[in-house]
Design a protein that fits this description.
Elements: H1 6-26, H2 33-65, H3 69-94, H4 100-131, H5 134-152, H6 159-167
Helix pairs in contact: 1-2, 1-4, 1-6, 2-3, 2-5, 3-4
Bound molecules: fe (ii) ion (FE2) (2 copies).
One fe (ii) ion binds next to helix 2, helix 3 and helix 4.
């Protein structure tokens, strides 16, 4: 196992953050329309940002490094689950925040994102730790953080993940 798991801990911190935002959205009611809209926006921003980092940097790096049937199954599932998440977010946007349908859809989104996160942490992230040498992992982490900062410059975002990323020793 590589001794530099910073890339994985960074992504896992983003997962925790997304789950916190999902819980915050779940905690809203049909009466708190403004809060619901705001929390949905925060969640969307978090999820799109995270999925973009994975789709642009992490998944392609893994796909290039591991071309096994097992690997391909995992990548296909992960990308498919991102598409499901994006579709659910679009459906949520189209629903009235005061509706019961909105409440139900948030539950579906939560189950779906939780499933994806569990899968990713159980299958895909262990591969990252296994297949990359320390130097490769460090290079990949630098690319990821650079892109993250670029994206970050365009929006407000959770501080936890940032503090973690930049305080970890090189
Ligand atoms: Fe993902
Ligand atoms: Fe992820």
């Amino acid at each position: 196992m590589a001794t530099h798991p910073r890339l994985v801990s960074f992504l896992e911190e983003q997962h925790r953050s997304a789950l916190r935002l999902l819980d915050a959205l779940m905690a809203t009611t049909e009466r708190s329309i403004k809060t619901r809209r705001q929390r949905l926006e925060e969640l969307e921003s978090e999820l799109y940002h995270h999925m973009l980092l994975e789709e642009e940097i992490v998944y392609p790096a893994l796909e290039a490094a591991v071309d096994s049937k097992h690997g391909q199954r995992i990548y296909r599932a992960a990308r498919g689950e991102h598409e499901v998440t994006k579709a659910l977010l679009k459906e949520l946007e189209a629903l009235a925040p005061a509706s019961v349908e909105f409440t139900r859809k948030v539950r579906v989104l939560k189950d779906s994102v939780e499933h994806h996160i569990t899968e990713e942490e159980a299958t895909l992230f262990p591969m990252v730790r296994q297949v990359f040498a320390q130097a490769e992992l460090e290079a990949l982490t630098r690319v990821l953080i650079r892109r993250h900062k670029e994206l970050e410059a365009h929006r407000a975002w959770s501080e936890d993940a940032l503090v973690m990323a930049f305080s970890a020793p090189e």
